[in-house]
Amino acid sequence: MHEGILLVLILLTSAVLAVALVKALRLPSMLAYLAIGIAVGPHALGWLEDSPQTERLAEFGVVFLMFSIGLEFSLPRLVAMRWQVFGLGGAQMIVTILATMAIAHFGDIPWQGSLALGAVFAMSSTAIVGRLLAEKLDLHSASGRRTMSVLLFQDLAVVPLLILIPALADTSRLAGTLGWALAQSAAILLLVTIVGRRLMRWWFDLVVRRKSAELFMLNVLWITTALAFLTEWAGLSLTLGAFLGGMLISETMYRHQVEADIRPFRDVLLGLFFITIGAQLDLAVVWQRFEWVFLVLAGLVAGKGLLMLMVARLSGADNSVAFRTAAQLAQAGEFGFVLLTLASGNGLLAPEVVQPSLAGMLLSMLAAPFVIERARHWSTRFAPDEWLRHSAALQEVAAHALGIDHHAIVCGYGRTGQSVARFLGKEGIPFIALDMDPHRVQQALSAGENVVFGNADRREVLLAAGLDRARIVVITYPDVPSALKVLGLVRARRPELPVVVRAADDAHLEELKHAGASEVVPEVLEGSLMLAAQTLTRLDVPLRRVLRDVEEAREQRYEGLRERYRNLAPGDDDSPPGSTASETKP
Questions:
Q1: Residue 376 and residue 395 in one domain
Q2: Would you say residue 10 lies in a domain?
Q3: Distance between CA 582 and CA 579 in Å, rounded?
Q4: pLDDT tier, 578 (very low <50, low <70, confident <90, very high otherwise)
Q5: pLDDT, tens digit, 9 for 90 and up, residues 467-483
Q6: Which of 67-71, 110-114, 158-162 has the lowest mean pLDDT?
Q7: In which element (H, E) is residue 364 found?
Q8: How are the residues of the chain apportioned to helix, strand and coil, as percentages rounded to the nearest 5?
Q9: Residue 147: is it exposed, middle or buried by C-beta count within 10 angstroms (0-12/13-18/19+)?
Q10: Same domain membership, residue 466 and residue 329
Q11: Stretch 60-89: mean pLDDT
C-alpha cells in the first residue's frame, strides 16, 4: 500500500514541476506528461508498471476528451463550414493515408498496418495548434479557419477510425465486422439523437431544479460514464458514447456550465493517459532505430506539410495562406496516440514500427510551436500577392493616420476600446483605433469613426498608425501575449511614450509593468472597488470615507498615480484626464 501511495506522490510531484516548467516556456502541458511517462515508465526508471488497471484508468482521459469535443460539436456550425471541413479535411486525410501506405509498402508492412499507420499520421494536434492560434489571434484568419476546419474533420473521423482499426485485425470478416459495427453505430446514433435529445433536456431541467451543484456534477459524470458503457456493451468504443453524450448536452442551455465542470476531470485524466503513452517509449529501441525516428519526424513535418500545402493550393488558397495552413498541421496529434495504441494492441503494428513512430510523433509535437512561428515570418516570401495585400492594408492605415498629430493609438475596438474612444472624442483628443474584426471595423467606419483594420502587434502597422507622432498608446484587449508584443515594439521605438494596458485581473500586472506598461488597469480590481463603494454607500457610510478607502486601495496598486491622487484638490473637476479627486464632500 505504501508503494502505491509513494508512486502517486512521485507522479503528482513530477506533474507539478514539469507542468510549471512547460507553462513558463509557453508550451502545452501535454508535453510535460509525455516526458514524465518516458522517465518513470518500464523502459527507464521502471516506477510505473504497464498494467491493465492503469491503462483502463488512463482511457477515461480520452473519454472526457471526446466528451468535450462532443460539447463543441454544433450541427449549424458544421453545415456552415461543410465545404472546408469535409472537402479540405477529407482531402488532407485521404492523401496522408495514401502517401503513408505507399511508403510503408517498401518497409514490408502489411496493408492493414499501413492503413492504420496512415490514420495515425493524418491526425494533428488540436490542443497545440488551437492554443497557438488563439494566442496569436489567428483563429479567424484565412489560414486559421482552414486549419480549424481540418482539425474538426479529424476529430469527427476518430469515431469511425476507432471502429475500423480493430476490424482490420481480422480481414476475413472485415466486411461483416464493419457492416455490423456501422449498423450498431447508426442504430445507437439514431436512438440517442432522436430519443436522447428531448430526454436529456427534460432530465437536466429536473436536476437543475434541485439547485445542487454537487448533484449537477454527479449527473454529468453519470451521463458520461453510462453512455460510454452503453456503446462499449454494444461492441463499440467507450469514446463513441462519450462523444454522443457531449453532442446531446451541447443542444441544451447547460452546455457551458457542463464544459466548465468537466474540465478538471478531463485535464487530470488526460494527463494520466499521456503519461501512459510516454511510458511506452523505449529509448533503447529508439536509439537503435534512430534513422527511422528521423524518417517519421521528417515525414510528419516536411512530408505532411508539403501534402497539406498542395491540398490547400488546390482548394483555392493563395501561397501565403496555404503555406501557413500547412505549417499549422505539420505535426502529430493527441488522437494519433490513441489510434497508435489501438493498432498496436490489435497486433497491426510491430513494436519495431511503434517505437520509432511514437518517438517521431513526440518530436514533431515538440517542434510544432517553432515551425508555426517561423511560418508566420516566412509566408510573405512565398506570396507576392499576399505582400501586395499587406502593403495595401498598411496604406489604408497610414491614410487614416494622415493629418493627425499628438494622437492616441487605441489597440482594439471592442466595448472597452469604444468607451475609451468616446472619452477621447469628448475631450477633443484625436485617435486612430486598430481592430482585427472586419465587421466591427466596417460598422465603425459607417458611423464616421476613425477605425481601421490592422493587427496592433505588428511593427509596420503601428508605424503606419503614426507611432512616431502619437501621444499615448492604449491596449484595450486583455490578451497578455499580444499586449507584451505591442509593449516591446513601442518601447523599442518610443521608450518615453505612455502605454496604458487593460488586463483581466492583476495576475500579469508585474509582468506587464516590467515589459514597459505605464499603467495596467485590472478589470477585476476596478470592478471590485466600484462594487465595494456602492455597498458601503448603501450602508450609509459617509461618501468622503468611501472615496478615501477606494483611493487607498487604488494607491496600493497604481503606484504611478500616487502623487497625482495626493496633489489633486477636493472637488477639482478640471483635473487632467485619468486623475481622480482624493476627497469629495458629501
A1: no
A2: no
A3: 9
A4: very low
A5: 989 999 999 987 888 88
A6: 67-71
A7: helix 351-378
A8: 75, 5, 25
A9: buried
A10: no
A11: 72
